Amino acid sequence: xxxxxxxxxxxxxxxxxxxxxxxxxxxxxxxxxxxxxxxxxxxxxxxxxxxxxxxxxxxxxxxxxxxxxxxxxxxxxxxxxxxxxxxxxxxxxxxxxxxxxxxxxxxxxxxxxxxxxxxxxxxxxxxxxxxxxxxxxxxxxxxxxxxxxxxxxxxxxxxxxxxxxxxxxxxxxxxxxxxxxxxxxxxxxxxxxxxxxxxxxxxxxxxxxxxxxxxxxxxxxxxxxxxxxxxxxxxxxxxxxxxxxxxxxxxxxxxxxxxxxxxxxxxxxxxxxxxxxxxxxxxxxxxxxxxxxxxxxxxxxxxxxxxxxxxxxxxxxxxxxxxxxxxxxxxxxxxxxxxxxxxxxxxxxxxxxxxxxxxxxxxxxxxxxxxxxxxxxxxxxxxxxxxxxxxxxxxxxxxxxxxxxxxxxxxxxxxxxxxxxxxxxxxxxxxxxxxxxxxxxxxxxxxxxxxxxxxxxxxxxxxxxxxxxxxxxxxxxxxxxxxxxxxxxxxxxxxxxxxxxxxxxxxxxxxxxxxxxxxxxxxxxxxxxxxxxxxxxxxxxxxxxxxxxxx
Length: 551
Prior knowledge:
18 helices, 57% helix
């Protein structure tokens, strides 16, 4: 969506800049063509004396801009830190305008950086009609000035100098800012912003017709263009941050919110169990997502709650005793006594249930805490068994092979030497098969050694393949025969007797499956191949893990 908006924003900016220059030149030419006036003759004399054209003098006279509002915005969060407005230029919702201005700046900078012909990396001016946003960035914040026209070079220098002074004085405030606008230092910053605005207004050489909502207009027009792309970003970036701060202010709990799979997860530590209801109440007013409690609570809080219930029970028992004493003294309290007794019984039953629940919880926690830990050596054996498949694949792929290729995903070894099998033949090329003896031995040795001398190995599978020539049934039979030939060859090697391979080797024909395709054409010689793979005995591994865990 953002990529689609780049050409729109680019065209818009180019259009507005061109139109603004055109209107400015027309305004200047109109002034030059005005009738006789003292100002005109003064301007002509000044032009002759200084050597500066009358048009440039008019441009200089027209370049004074009035600053209507100034915002200082936190870069990382986009939150408004401080603001100041001229009289009749106050903005109704400065926090929303600050958020949108942040989005505008980020969006346009992103657009500019994607233009090959653009040498600029940062936007400073955004204009529409007679409304302008002037942006300066430094440290952890940036300043946005809302003006009624574009500022000239001198005015930009004044703004930059003022901004540098503010950064120097309040850098600590800006770096530590987390959304708390009650900090007394913020009032000092806003006072300095307002003082600068008043100084700028008093220093303006000519009066201009101001529109009280010029800042809103430019913000609304530019924001309207990118709302579709930036709205979701702002909602996701600031929404949960505001909720987290609201929860902390009302409950004192630091809880993080995380949305995943259409659910809102509560994460962190809950210091007091009573606060959970308040947290849920705050969230239910702001979101319809299912709330998942992933919080944990210290054992001290559970114990405290249990003691509170015990204390409540003792208090009720004392009240019951006092009631019986008063009953002996007066018969007038009999009716009240009956009602109170009923209430006490219900409360006792409720407390008894809570006590049972608490006792079960404490016993469960004690059981977990008292459970013996597995010693490091046993744990190492458990970890080795769990990761045997991964370690075996890694061991196989790290070996050096001359004429075979290991698969790093499943540990299979593919043998596809040129002319390993002639077309239609089941007997491997004698010269080539001898050259593969070392690769086959390396592969099998690695498997046997990594599985504890084959203790956890179920089988070694020899798969035979054909090219796609001929019928499917013929190729299936031919591939099975080729696999059997390789099996017989391996069983004839000394390594077969060394490891007792007859109990592990299994031959399997794969037919014409997975032909080798190179540049869209089948390499038939490569398709006539053999693949060696392994299968672990998961039952034995699980049995060994069970023994180790209960040791």
